[in-house]
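[audit] Reproducing an earlier prediction to check determinism. Same input, same settings, fresh worker. If the tokens differ from the archived copy the diff job will pick it up downstream; this log only records the rerun itself.
[audit] input (130 residues):
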Amino acid sequence: MPQRIGAVTLLVPDYDAAISYFCGVLGFELVEDRPLEEGKRWVLVRPRGATGTAVLLARAASEEQARRLGDQTGGRVFLFLETDDFEGDHARYVAAGVEFTEEPRDEAYGTVAVFKDAFGNRWDLIQPAA
């Protein structure tokens, strides 16, 4: 079997707030929400209809992890959300109050704009070039 990345972990302050944001505001689907030991949960979300890599929403469990909320990559864009309808998704996110840190721009690799999720992580919304 070929290898693949099944999930990437995103630290969040609260499971339910993260599910509400990712599924309610960004339109992701809840793939799994299973209780684990010590009040932890296994919470996977991914863009609606996607079959690839999921995002594991992990509640910060220590002071060190809590300090890294919203800045897991030292201020760089962390995740890249690809779309085939940049204008529609961008307009929907703006209407939902998503904070974009720049205006959309065209690059050689596609149309892109950086936004921050509810926890401060920087994402690219990108429609790859044809």
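[audit] rerun output stored. Observation attached for the diff report: The CA atoms of residues 98 and 117 lie 7 Å apart.
[audit] end
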